[in-house]
Amino acid sequence: MQIIASSFMFWKEKFSEQHLVYLKNAGFSGFEMFCYRNYLDWKNRTEMDKLLHAMRVNQFTISSMHAPWTKGVENEWYDIASLDHRIREKALKEIFEAVEIFKKAGAKFLVVHPGMDKFKSTTKNQYMENAVHSLKLISLFAHELGIQVLIENPPPPEIGSSVDEIKEIFKGLRDYKPGFCFDIGHANITNEGIDAFLTSGLFPSELHISDNHGQKDEHLLPGEGSIDWGSFFTKVKHRFGERVSEIKFNFELGRFPGTAVLIKLREKFSIF
Questions:
Q1: Which of 58, 200, 231, 251 sits CB 3.0–4.6 Å from 5 for a disulfide?
Q2: Dihedrals φ, ψ of 214, to 5°?
């Protein structure tokens, strides 16, 4: 079992080598790079060179990358399912560029949201078609570079946030063989809840771990929200058996809780 942490916990700061040191001191050797240019301008060669140097010095690897999801301005998303072809094309271009850059940094997995915007019931079918088509293009591009695409269940009301929608997306992509990234916090704020996703028939290659109170995506530490983690552990073990060892556990927290707390969290999940 691989346990990593996401750089998302530092999104309010300017990403630096010190952040890798925090994670290393907490016992992590790999992390998820959240492609958010406000804290790391990954298109800037100088900033990327600093990151790669810091990774070498600290013997760190990028285990997965989260596809670009915002332009850094509120309510401006990179939406691969948009009904506006110009927005879709810009989103795909941004993702393709990120994949090429972080492939060189060692990334082997790409986590993608099927869509970012709200949609009306009258446009849902077209929005779903756009999502599947764009994910096909992303899968083909990523596979050529040796990167596995993981489709994440997003928070509602984004497309793919319900079990039926995420299964429909995977059905449309069955020949492209994407993996599933199960975001536990996102599932907790749906009407269906976490159990519905655990019994959906989709095997999670990666788990995004954070807590909330069932109303919004708060990215809290496990134990700070309403999720019953003891029950979750039991159900995952029962559902997936020995395959649990194949799942990557990723702490996608909204803040850095301190090294001591991260150590305790990692140790707690290590005995899973």
A1: 251
A2: 85, 5
What's the pLDDT tens digit per position in 3-39?
999 999 999 999 999 999 999 999 998 999 999 999 9
The answer, yes or no, to whether residue 1 has pLDDT greater than 80, is no
Mean pLDDT of the chain: 93
- The most distant pair of C-alpha atoms in the chain lies apart, rounded to whole Å, by 53
Backbone angles phi, psi at 115, to 5 degrees: -170, 160
Give the domain CATH number at 164.
Answer: 3.20.20.150
Best CA proximity match to 197, nearest among 210, 180, 212: 180
DSSP 130-176: HHHHHHHHHHHHHHHTT-EEEEEP--TTSTT-SHHHHHHHHHHTTTT
Q: How many domains, in total, are found in the chain?
A: 1
| Beta carbons of 196 and 163 less than 8 angstroms apart | yes
State which amino acid sits at residue 1: M
Average pLDDT over residues 67-78: 80
- Report the C-alpha gap between 6 and 160 in whole angstroms: 22
Cα angle vertex 157, ends 68, 254, to 5°? Answer: 50
DSSP 3-state of 40? coil
Q: What is the mean pLDDT of residues 82-102?
A: 95
Half-sphere exposure of 161 (CA within 13 A, CB side): 21
Give me the domain span that covers residue 225. 2-270
Q: Which of 96, 197, 127 is nearest to 155 (CA)?
A: 197
- Those residues whose C-beta lies under 8 Å from the C-beta of residue 247, and which sit 6 or more positions away, are 1, 204, 205, 206, 207, 240
**Tokens 């994949």 found at:** 99
| Residue 197 DSSP SS3 | helix
